[in-house]
Every structure is written in C-alpha cells, then in structure tokens.
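Table S4 entry, PIN domain-containing protein.
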Amino acid sequence: AIFTVLNDETGTDIVKTILETAQSRTNTIIHMPFIALMEAEYLLLRSYSPDETEHVISRVLAWPMQLAESSPEWRHQAAYVKSVWNVSLADAWIAGLAILLNAKLIHKDPEFDAIPQLQTVRLPSK
C-alpha cells in the first residue's frame, strides 16, 4: 500500500480514503508494521540517495498511522504464520500483526490470499 500511494498506482484512492477515515475518526487506528516500512526504505535506497529516501520515509511517517515495532506476541504469531503458510519472512511478520490485532490488511500481494485468518482489502494489481 505504501508504494501504491507513492507511485500513484491504481488503488491510491482506496488507500487515501482509508488514511483520511483514520484521521477523522478517533477510534480507527492504522498500524504500519516496521518491516513494511523497512522494505519501502531499502527499495527506495536502490533508486535514490539516502537524503531523498529519508525525505520520502519522513512523508510516510507523517501519515495518520502508528508504526508497529516488534513484540514477543507478534513474533510468536509471525513464527506461526511462517511455519504454516508458504510466505516470505516479511509477509509472515505483516500477516502476523494483522491476525494478532484482528485488523484488516491492505495489500497487493497474492501471498496473503493463502492465509484464511486474514481479513484483507486487496488492492488492484499494477
């Protein structure tokens, strides 16, 4: 969802509506997994300078969301996801957080479709 907005891809309107809704409601919280932000950062660093990357990451961090850092409970959930479904390590962390929080996962990644416990909003592919 991060690159959907940054690259103004199909689905940007969906993500922006979710962000705007979270900003206007006090009972709606968006959690961004640390590993999703890390993935965005390393991909940006492959194409942009560290200063340019930091500028983009600071813009993302200004979105109405909470950056979720690791916890033992989340680690256990991610380990379970990784042990049962054929997903990448990063996707296990991301799915684990959504399952742990009983939250909807906003994504484009077909790997998440295999995890029945996930509530998802699937963004259109590029």
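The chain has a mean pLDDT of 94.
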